[in-house]
Known about the structure:
Elements: H1 17-21, H2 40-46, E1 47-49, E2 55-57, E3 69-72, E4 76-79, H3 87-90, H4 97-105
Antiparallel strand pairs: 1-2, 3-4
Amino acid sequence: xxxxxxxxxxxxxxxxxxxxxxxxxxxxxxxxxxxxxxxxxxxxxxxxxxxxxxxxxxxxxxxxxxxxxxxxxxxxxxxxxxxxxxxxxxxxxxxxxxxxxxxxxxxxxxxxx
Length: 113
């Protein structure tokens, strides 16, 4: 049985190829009930507002991954705002179809190592 270790992966924290192809940058929305909205300095560091005033997590320009993710994809990663991460991040489930698709896109095997 394949184990999916999120701390060795980070692929789901990256803007997918289909989004990048159309210039879509609003990958992870920060919702009104998310704790991060009550931490202005943290919000300023890791989030951005789009043209409609909606907050989303910032993505790095180089590899389109969440700026709150530290480490090397597929080796060892960690979320620097784990306790305050937005709702969509909390809903991610290891081993789901979306997880496996993100891993494949980033060249990370099924075990994330």
